[in-house]
Amino acid sequence: MRAFDSEKKFLSWLLHDGEGESGEKIQLLQFCYPEIQDPAQQLFSDIDFKTVTPEEFKGRAILTVTNDLSIQINNRVLECMPGNEVIYESMDNTVSNDPQDQLAYTEEFLNSLTPTGILPHKLKLKPGVLIMLLRNLAPSKGLCNE
């Protein structure tokens, strides 16, 4: 793994803490947010969402512990972006001949899951909003997820 100079301090702190050398109390670094009330304001206060360009987001990332928290932050930031929101819903079903599986894994239950690498059941987007392509399913067609 390569680390930029700005990341080395954080990586050193993380390694030190992970090896149990930090003592009883953990002192968060100044750039860590233990609780995010308004992520758009805290993390992107220097950006005007009405006129933002993709270049202004270059080099920025929000890291979260869970996908649920990531989805919450994404939806909050999306609210700040101009344009009409479009919601795409997944279609979930159980592929099994066992009737017990059909009862145990209802569509509502499957819709509630947020596994790593899979989009949420309700994907909210707006025109011009940046997205990340997690898997390129058809490289011969360019960047494609069909």
Automatic annotation (TrEMBL):
Please identify the protein, giving its name as recorded.
DNA helicase Pif1-like 2B domain-containing protein
Q: What region holds the DNA helicase Pif1-like 2B domain?
A: 108-145
Q: Which parts pass through the membrane?
A: none
Instruction: Specify the superkingdom.
Output: Eukaryota
